[in-house]
Amino acid sequence: MFRAELLINETPFPLVYQHIQLKSLAHIRSILFLEPAGEPLPEHIYLCTLDSFPESFVRAADCTYLLCTDPDGEVDPQALLTRFGDSPSNILVYRAGIFQLYNHVSTIFMSYHQWQFDLRSTDDVQILAEYFFIRTRIPIAVLGSFFQQIAFCSNRQDTDPLFPILGTGDPLPHSLVKELLVTERKQRPHMTITFRMDGHTYLAHHIRKNDKTVARILFSLPGEELTDRSEHYIDDFIHVVTPIILTNDAMAQLSKDAFGSLIADLVDLRIKDTEELQRRLELEPGILKGKFFHVIVIRFSRTDRAIPYHYISGQLEQIFPNSSATSYEDTLVVIASKGTYDEEVCYDEGLLTDLLVSFDAYAGIGNCTRFLINMRSLYLQALATARLGRIYCKEKKQRIFRYNDYMVYFITDLCFEAAVKLHQFTYPAHLCHPGVIAILQYDKSNGTSLEKTLRAYLHCNCNATLCAKELFVHRNTINYRIGVIEDLLKGSLSDPMLRTEILLSLRILEHEKQYHGIDELARIEKTAMNSDIRIKK
After folding, report:
1. Beta strand pairing call for 90-95 and 140-144
2. Residues 101 and 47 sit within 8 Å (Cβ to Cβ)
């Protein structure tokens, strides 16, 4: 709805932008000369002379009329107010010839529609920023969530403390970023804020998704306030660029690059100092919401096919509240935050399982920590959990695994890897207690099940009665078998250290057979190692 307005312009050809609501230009079809016999429509701008505008003409609301008066004649302002003061229309009076005014308004009209066409002609944010600067001469910068530069266009201004630094393309100094963040926090949660820095005025528009800032559009204002013309151009630019950044995969990745690079720097040990980590986290305070964290790694069964990492990352951030997700090499990493150590990691198990099944993936959930400086260890643990859980889980449909349930397999894996790669062990059995090998040989030679009895006995905390119930045999049978086992072990199972050595040995042999498909006993019998550990009859 336009407000009635009377303007007597002393200067020739003033900026019509200042007098016509610019938003209306997007809906205006043409510039017409007024025909009193016709019915005026809001989609046209009407021109006529002041003298030919009929006093009895019924003017439709929301219509705009440009009236020309004799440039050299006298105009009584009070008479104009009396005549048009209560008009429901937007009536503007100019000191100009009607044809001159027509040409001027048509130029403005066509120029604005060319701007609208330019905005729709590309989804390149840098090109759009250049279009904006050409139209308004207002310096503009589009920054990602971590203040990395996405687009920039400006003429260097010595009085501007910020844009000359942005123009270099280098990362913003940490001190400057902190100053910007402090300024922004004072005015949130507004999407668009105005702030001053070193006496200069800026307009900052935040593009947000899932309550997080994914980009900032900064405008370096020429004065304390915007003109109507500039304000509408800014609105147009924001309206076009926002969906590009929110929906374009490349733009979405730009907004996440800083978090992804932080995770990569931590995993690859490029950040080893807690103070440096703290400085990096200060650049985007909302990225980690909590004091304690779980590292979750999503591992895909096949990486030779296209995987929509960006889409899955967005889904994971919905499944894990207060989390951030990014890709690292051929996996996805989720940092899920929580307030206290004792809290369970919160997530929608059903949705996560469905997502993992859809992309044939597995999730390893690491232990809780408050020290992300140890990201490499946490990542490797969670990655191994996703790998080992898939092998050792009894329920093959399971897709989500926790580190605590597979920790001993991970430790076994590390022992085996170090033995073979670092120390060139010929066989993993060299790591085992020789008495365990002797028990396996005894079972094979005599058709007994001492290994099964030993595992059950240890599982029942060396309680013969419970072990007998589990194996459905008499308690005396268990006592007899344990006696044979202790003879082969040459030690008592009451010794906690011996029990630890046996359990680790069993895990190593189990890992070789189930994970690598190798029967250590069969290999032993074919080698000279056989004579070292065979129990002499």
Report:
1. unpaired
2. yes
CA gap 28, 43 in Å, rounded: 4
In this structure, is residue 53 part of a structural domain?
yes
Residue recorded with tokens 């990602």: 144
Task: Note whether residue 267 is domain-resident.
Answer: no
- 3-state class of 30 per DSSP? strand
**Which H, E and C letters describe 118-142, residue by residue?**
HHHCCCCHHHHHHHHHHHHCCCEEE
Q: Which domain holds residue 46?
A: 8-120
What is the Rg, in whole angstroms, of the alpha carbon atoms belonging to the chain? 38
- Number of H helices and number of E strands within the chain? 19, 15
- Domain boundary (224, 249, 274) is at 249
* Strand-strand pairing, 140-144 and 212-220: antiparallel
Is the whole-model pTM more than 0.70?
A: no
Give the whole-angstrom CA distance, residue 514 versus residue 521: 14
pLDDT in tens, 522-535: 665 555 444 444 44
H/E stretch holding 205: strand 200-209
- Contacts of residue 99, Cβ cutoff 8 Å, sequence gap at least 6: none
Annotate 147-169 with three-state secondary structure: CCEEEEECCCCCCCCCHHHHCCC
| b/e code 315-349 from CB counts within 10 Å (16+ = b) | bbbebbeebbbbbbeebbbbbbbbeeeeeebebee
Give tens-digit pLDDT for 158-192. Answer: 678 888 888 777 767 767 777 777 676 666 556 78
| 36-74: pLDDT as tens digits | 777 788 888 888 888 788 776 656 667 788 888 876 767
Q: Which of 226, 249, 272 is the last residue of a domain?
A: 249
* Bridge partners (DSSP) listed for residue 331: 299, 328
Residues 21, 58 within the same domain: yes
- Res 400: pLDDT: 95
| Residue 4 vs residues 11, 61, 68, 171: alpha-carbon distances, Å | 21, 10, 17, 50
Residues 404, 406, 410, 411: what is their CA dihedral angle, to the nearest 10 degrees?
60
Question: Does residue 187 share a domain with residue 115?
Answer: no
DSSP E strand stretches across 211-282: 212-220
Higher pLDDT, 430 or 377: 377
The answer to whether residues 307 and 405 belong to one domain is: yes
Q: Which of 117, 148, 6 is CA-nearest to residue 69? A: 6
The residue with tokens 């690491």 is 366
Residue 60, class by beta-carbon neighbours within 10 Å (0-12 exposed, 13-18 middle, 19+ buried)? exposed
